[in-house]
Amino acid sequence: VAVTDNDTPNLVVSTEAVTVAEAGSAIYMVRLAKQPTDAVTVTVLGMGNGVSVDTDGGMQGQQASLSFTTGNWNAEQTVTVSAADDDNTIFETVTLTHTADGGGYDAVSQALVVVNVTDDDTGSLVVSPEAVTVAEKGSATYTVKLATEPTDGVMVTVQGMGNGVSVDTDRRRGGQQTSLGFTTSNWDRWQTVTVWAAADDNIVFETVTLAHSAVGGGYDAVNQALVVVTVTDDDTAGLVVSAETVNVVEEDSATYTVKLATPPTGAVTVTVGGMGSGVSVDTDS
Q1: Organism's domain of life (predicted)?
Q2: 0.70 exceeded by the pTM?
């Protein structure tokens, strides 16, 4: 009697996909589908994008092969998948392949395991410092960068200027620019924003909040980073009289005028004092 074997040599993986968090790990199992004729070595291939494997945690370093014999061919062996931490916000996907050598398994189809890496980085804008003080007719600077690597170019725009406050993101160009460009190469390099404060006639210390919005590279939905600008005023409140001395003939009168040196923040009442020795004043004749 001739017995024909209808079992097909094949590699069996316990799952076709695993999910791994950045800086974390996951496992899956591998075994042979039928008894080999001799020892079989299974090698894991396809690692990259921060994904690595280890087939023997008891050995130093990361091993990438599994050994099966005619005795342990159906005992599952463990593969540990690890994902490195990175600075981008991309959810990587890597497909691991498994090849076999020896024991009649040389021509078997490759078994595949898809590794999905979940990212723990959050795209955001970083400003330093978060508050600046600018004197009237003066300037100050702050810097901006991205917190994580973008997937493509990112344009950051400064908004909220007013009350005499303006910005310039590139002083080498004519006019005042209000945007900064970041790429996948320079995303972590600080770029400078110059803040200007115009002179005015009032004595008010203005406060302006600058907001920063981003578009592109996975940064469209990030929260706006804020920088508070406080403008210190160089104007001094005071009274101005048209003459510091007036001469008046007895039983006669003379006039002088009074005004404010700077615009007030509200209504101002000026009172004249010091009358006496026959001298009187009238502010509404």
Answers
A1: Bacteria
A2: no
